[in-house]
Amino acid sequence: MLTTRIQLGVNIDHIATLRQARGTRYPDPVQAALLAEEAGADGITLHLREDRRHIQERDVELIAAVLNTRMNLEMAVTEEMIALAERLRPADVCLVPEKREELTTEGGLDVIAGRDAIAAACRRLASVGCRVSLFIDPEPDQIAAAQAVGAPVIELHTGAYAEAQGDARGVEYARLAAAAELASELGLVVNAGHGLHYHNVEAIAAIPGIHELNIGHSIIARALFVGLKEAVVEMKRLMVAGQEAGLVAQLESYDEDHDHDH
Ligand SMILES: CC(=O)[C@@H](O)[C@H](O)COP(=O)(O)O
Ligand SMILES: NCC(=O)COP(=O)(O)O
């Protein structure tokens, strides 16, 4: 079993949310990106929303210029955003659905309905060296469509899992695990994110095949009390512990299956 260590993409959107609340120059997401990297983030995620409610174009440009790791730019499938990504060429572009009235990203991208536009965006972005990820719900049809449009990566939307209570949480977890398995079988790199926090992340990190988690709101919130570096370190520690627990469980179930064979 060959597994690489799970990666953490720290989403710094909500540093910008705080800045925009007062129209000040602080706190600066550029400073946050560099601190998160120093603390062990494997990449920096930021979402340039069309309504510019948090991240601004200036943030994307400056962070692209100073980052030592990878930028994962989340954006809608629009001509304006594709042209920006073609100019700045972030290592990763994650295509997401957007609604101006939503509080946060409510669901995954409908790759089936938007097939032609998404396929064209994937081609354009790949031609300038960006690795394209599609932010989708854990649905088999959407995963198959993601592969069909030529995206090498998917990010499974974990919002429904994060919000679910009681038995529903187990149902959402099983959907994510099944989706990760199917996508891995299809040769896609499988990331996940949205709504993950210090109390629900370990189980997600334990899912076989999960390559990277993108986490923002909970890390920035925790940073208020322990500082950004400590908040990143703590999150990464939980993710690695979760991945290790998942690997042990996989080995145990492999051994059990083979004991039955003898
Ligand atoms: C696509 C996604 O999940 C992230 O962009 C996250 O939603 C943070 O940004 P918002 O809080 O603006 O949705
Ligand atoms: N794509 C998910 C992401 O970047 C972070 O989402 P959240 O942790 O802020 O909910």
UniProtKB/TrEMBL annotation:
The GO molecular function terms of this record are:
pyridoxine 5'-phosphate synthase activity
Any one Pfam family match given in the protein's UniProt record, by short name: PdxJ
Q: Where in the cell is it found?
A: Cytoplasm
Q: Does the keyword Cell membrane apply?
A: no
Q: Which residues of this UniProt protein bind 3-amino-2-oxopropyl phosphate?
A: N11, R22, G195, G216, H217
Gene3D superfamilies attached here? Aldolase class I
Residue numbers binding 1-deoxy-D-xylulose 5-phosphate? D13, H14, R49, H54, T104
Locate the site labelled Transition state stabilizer.
E155
Annotated metabolic or biological route of this protein: Cofactor biosynthesis; pyridoxine 5'-phosphate biosynthesis; pyridoxine 5'-phosphate from D-erythrose 4-phosphate: step 5/5
Q: Does the keyword Plastid apply?
A: no
Catalysis: reaction(s): 3-amino-2-oxopropyl phosphate + 1-deoxy-D-xylulose 5-phosphate = pyridoxine 5'-phosphate + phosphate + 2 H2O + H(+)
SUPFAM superfamilies per the record? Pyridoxine 5'-phosphate synthase
Which keywords describe this protein according to UniProt? Cytoplasm, Pyridoxine biosynthesis, Transferase
| Assigned EC number | 2.6.99.2
- The entry's active site is H47 (proton acceptor), E74 (proton acceptor), H194 (proton donor)
Q: Which family does it belong to?
A: Belongs to the PNP synthase family.
Q: What does this protein do?
A: Catalyzes the complicated ring closure reaction between the two acyclic compounds 1-deoxy-D-xylulose-5-phosphate (DXP) and 3-amino-2-oxopropyl phosphate (1-amino-acetone-3-phosphate or AAP) to form pyridoxine 5'-phosphate (PNP) and inorganic phosphate.
PANTHER family in UniProt? PYRIDOXINE 5'-PHOSPHATE SYNTHASE
Quaternary data: Homooctamer; tetramer of dimers.
Q: Which protein are we looking at?
A: Pyridoxine 5'-phosphate synthase
Please report the organism this UniProt entry assigns to the protein: Salinicola endophyticus
